[in-house]
Specification:
The protein is of the alpha/beta class and about 425 residues long. It is about 40% helix and about 10% strand. A six-stranded parallel β-sheet has the order 3-4-5-6-7-8. InterPro entries: Aldolase_TIM, DNA_rSAM_put, Elp3/MiaA/NifB-like_rSAM, Endo/Exo/Phosphatase_dom_1, rSAM, rSAM_sf, RuvA_2-like.
Length: about 425
């Protein structure tokens, strides 16, 4: 086989990394090199695809160390039996690329994942070496996210956390049965064991840094995971419940959802079509409800269809819940507690906080609420204001068409 140059390797391994969704860069420690020591920063504006909570775009070099793999997971395009072009970086090549891209102001950090070559330990050693060299040899202070391998020696995973800002371990699929069927070489118990070890290390490091300021940081941006949606028969209700369990048990920063995408020469056990991308979007919205809107998992699951367990695709989960539990509304914006205001469709966290702050000084009218939301039409049936009471809307059987977003054909040459 002909030897590939760095550009050809980059084209193959950057494309192969596109299936990894878990590459956000939020929550890390603040570091920069304005003092003249080291290289890089975790702050500033980026040009690519990862976004911080404050809306900053963080650019990451997102690649695989290699797309060769000794495993044969049915859903993975890089599986052992897949007929794809293979490539492999050395650790030094990844380091050189990261430094070169940073100096050209292309990136602010590195997201590194990999197929399994030779063994889990060997592959993990190579990934740790990339992070070590960047930190110690080049004093790189930018963001590093390593996708760790649960089958690797725990000490290697621990070393990854000492050099990386965030580590992630993929649970792959929402259910144990799905994992056994589609990725029989992977062990769900071992995956969770590795996630538990990372959680323990993060907690221990937090305690150590309270006592000793010189204690090294361990994965300051926490850990995350990713599950594939639509490759198995898991319902949205099962996925939401699984995500909630992972958040509670392992203190995850994020659970990412990746809609299954049909791959060339696919296994016969996989579905022929990908799930609607809107399904992935609805799962992210349900995740948001649990993390920021104080919804319990069973409340989010209750928004799904009772027969199928699937969230509706035409409306968001928050509106679906409100329409299903009409007895909880309308909510008085001048008196209701914050947790009930958060359940009003069309009101976000910032809008609710402003309502709570404003009503200390005056009674809020419908116009006041309208200034805080994109569409007051969606809000009106669910609230009571100083000059508004939804008398005719409260018990309407056809309320959904009035508040659901209207479908419209976009103009191809609109100004």
């Amino acid at each position: 086989m002909a030897q590939l140059d760095t550009r050809e390797k980059l084209a193959i391994l950057a494309d192969a990394a596109k299936y990894d969704a878990s590459c956000a860069s939020s929550g890390t420690a603040k570091r920069d090199s304005r003092d003249g020591k080291g290289l890089g920063s975790t702050e500033g504006m980026g040009i690519c695809h990862a976004y911080a909570p404050d809306g900053r775009c963080i650019s990451l070099l997102k690649i695989l160390l290699t797309n060769s793999c000794i495993f044969d997971c049915h859903y993975c395009i890089n599986r052992k039996s897949s007929n794809v072009r293979r490539a492999r970086f050395t650790a030094q090549e990844v380091v050189n690329l990261t430094i070169s891209f940073y100096k050209r102001n292309y990136i602010e950090g590195l997201f590194l994942s990999s197929g399994i070559i030779k063994s889990s330990n060997y592959t993990m050693e190579q990934m740790v070496e990339v992070a070590r060299s960047l930190r110690e040899d080049h004093h790189f202070r930018g963001y590093i996210h390593l996708k760790t391998i649960p089958d690797a020696d725990p000490e290697l995973v621990h070393q990854a956390g000492l050099y990386a800002d965030r580590v992630s371990i993929n649970v792959e699929l929402p259910t144990v049965s799905g994992l056994k069927r589609l990725a029989p070489e992977k062990d769900g118990a071992r995956i969770e064991g590795a996630m538990k070890d990372v959680k323990t290390s993060i907690a221990d490091n937090g305690d150590a840094r309270k006592k000793y300021k010189s204690a090294p940081r361990f994965a300051p941006a926490g850990q995350s995971t990713q599950m594939i949606v639509g490759a198995d028969a898991a319902t949205d209700g099962e996925i939401v419940t699984r995500a909630s369990t992972l958040y509670d048990r392992f203190g995850l920063r994020r659970v990412y959802y990746s809609a299954f995408s049909p791959i060339p020469d696919a296994s016969t056990v996989l579905p022929l079509q990908r799930p609607p991308l809107m399904r992935e979007h609805r799962l992210y919205q349900s995740d948001w409800l649990m993390r920021f809107y104080d919804y319990s998992p069973h409340e989010v699951v209750a928004a799904a269809d009772d027969a199928t367990g699937m969230l509706p695709l035409d409306i968001d989960p928050k509106l679906a819940w409100a329409l299903k539990f009409r007895e909880s509304f309308p909510v008085d914006v001048n008196r209701a507690p914050r947790e009930m205001l958060l359940r009003v469709p069309g009101l976000g966290v910032k809008a609710v906080d402003r309502i709570v702050a404003s009503r200390r000084w005056r009674r809020l009218r419908l116009d006041d609420v309208a200034r805080l939301t994109v569409s007051v039409t969606k809000v009106r049936p669910f609230i009571v204001a100083e000059d508004w009471r939804p008398v005719l809307l409260t018990d309407r059987a056809d309320l959904k068409p009035l508040v659901a977003p209207r479908r419209q054909q976009l103009e191809l040459f609109a100004a």
